[in-house]
Queue: 4 jobs
Job 1
Amino acid sequence: MRRAPSEGPSLIGNTIKFGAYGAAFGSTLGVFEGAWKDPHPTKPLRAVGEMAASHAATAALVAAVFGATDAALETVRGHSPANQVVAGCVAGSMIGFQTHNLTRAALGCGVFGTIQAVGAIGMWSPGAEH
């Protein structure tokens, strides 16, 4: 059953929401990594802040691309577990594209797409309409 476009996720709303979640996750990860590593001898807080900002930017980019791709696919194709797999692949490839490395982009696509596929299979149940 296909949804009307007004019933699907908002492209801008999903992008902002997922980007904000990614930034929060990335900054938290960066703070923990900064606390774990040896501190910078003269400016330890600045080093932790830079690490948190770097991780926040990367995670926000990946999450925002995932949210935008998922919303766009749902608007065009309707609801399907394959949308999340494709969105995971596109989002994962952003990590490689950031470093201009196609091998890393392909690996990111495979890893993130596989994670989404496993999640979609885990949420699937026989006879249920999704």
Job 2
Amino acid sequence: MTPEFLREGNAVADVLGPDRIVLGGIDDRTQDAVAELYAPFAADTIRTNPATAEMIEYTANSLLASYLEAGCGFGGGCLPKDVKALVAFGRDVGSPMRVLESVMGVNEGQPAQMLRLGREPIPVRSVDPSQSPHGEQAGERMPGPWRTGVPGRRAQKRKWFQVLSRSYQR
């Protein structure tokens, strides 16, 4: 686990400055060899067996997946796999992981949620003609005192940005 989770835009910093290093080895010789590779990094080091190291990875990724504001959902090779593995483990030992099951359900629905949000009409800021620098001329172009209409390309791009960055908030 070195580091298992890389933040977008911070991958190099995350690799060079991990918060912890987990060494899962079958014996001291193996752990010593791997520890030598990580000697230049100043981070807390945990030495354990491979099964425990794997469980640390699963739980760390499951915790991250539970608290991410991932916009259109999280993916990659690790988060979904590790969350599903922990859910399966819980099921196998008779202890359902309901929170993680919900996290996966929300994540799997996020792409569709993003599309739904992208199809919603974009509210156009209402304009009171009396406040317009063009006075009554503005009112003549609008049906009644308030204007609604189809947004331009810039507003559509802003909407997609909002969808991508805030879809978890709905």
Job 3
Amino acid sequence: MKLIRFFWIAPLLGFLTLAQARNLNLADGDQPINIQANAMTLDNTNRKSTFEGNVRMTQGSIKITASRIELTQDTQAMATIRAWGRPVTFQGRSAQTNKLVQGWSDQVEYKETEGSIVLTGNARLISEGDEIRAQTIRYFRTTGQYKADGARTDIPVFVTIQPRNRDN
């Protein structure tokens, strides 16, 4: 009898796991951070880890690739991630629309507590065909807001907005 109950529960647990996997982007901050690199240095005293060489970081739907990543955790184990490369790549799903957002820049800073991503240096961000290019782009995943700045350089902010279906 116990064996029969297990076979009934196992498919249910599998279904629940699949349903949860579809909503990972809504709770990326609740997912573990996974990092793969050629080398790592750990400083437990300062709660800082440095990863170098072909670095790949994932947390739920968020993916960052870079030459170097520094991860710092606060006392509540919330992470700030700084990444450098030429380029650093970023992708994640919007918490609002579940649409893919992709970005490239010389440096990326991801603050888990704020759900913000700052792309600096030759920054480019694409979402649903819309594109922003600027020296600095700030993207707030939780609100879907973007801020672009090119004022400190001779590079202006450039935006392409695709037409939307007006019937929706």
Job 4
Amino acid sequence: MVRFRLPLAAALALTAGAAWADLGREELQVLEGAKLTIADAVSRIETAAGGKAVDVEFEANDGRGQYEVKVVSSDDVHTHKIDATTGEVLDTDKALFSEMFNRLKPEAVSGARTSLTQAIAMAERQAGGRVIDAEVDDEDGRIQYEMTVVGPDGNTQELTLDDGTGQLAADD
């Protein structure tokens, strides 16, 4: 299985202002073959689970793409794996919110002005690519959306949206 997160060593090796890294050809082909966008996957799962998404990640596994979407519903987090081509839900798991997140609180998620789907759309417009990873985080009491966008050339860029200010910025 290939996960599209930059390892810490790779992130530290990036020079200031150059927040791009390469995505492999095979992973890019799997992403390009996905019929379901990451925003579509989030919307479908939010509707089905009756909650708000706090994390979504695109994965390539044996040449097939899937999304892993975590949705908060009450004090629970439901994790759903959804096929990126067919939209079929492949697996569902449930855990207590407190077991999965230590800083983020359910009430902060429900009170956010921006949804994860809206944050994804903003990041894709600004970067001109597709979001492959997005998560909600609490930074000193402020909700932020941290996203990884891959461009058509396979390069990835890290972006952060501050829910309070609406500012979207590239991470250094």
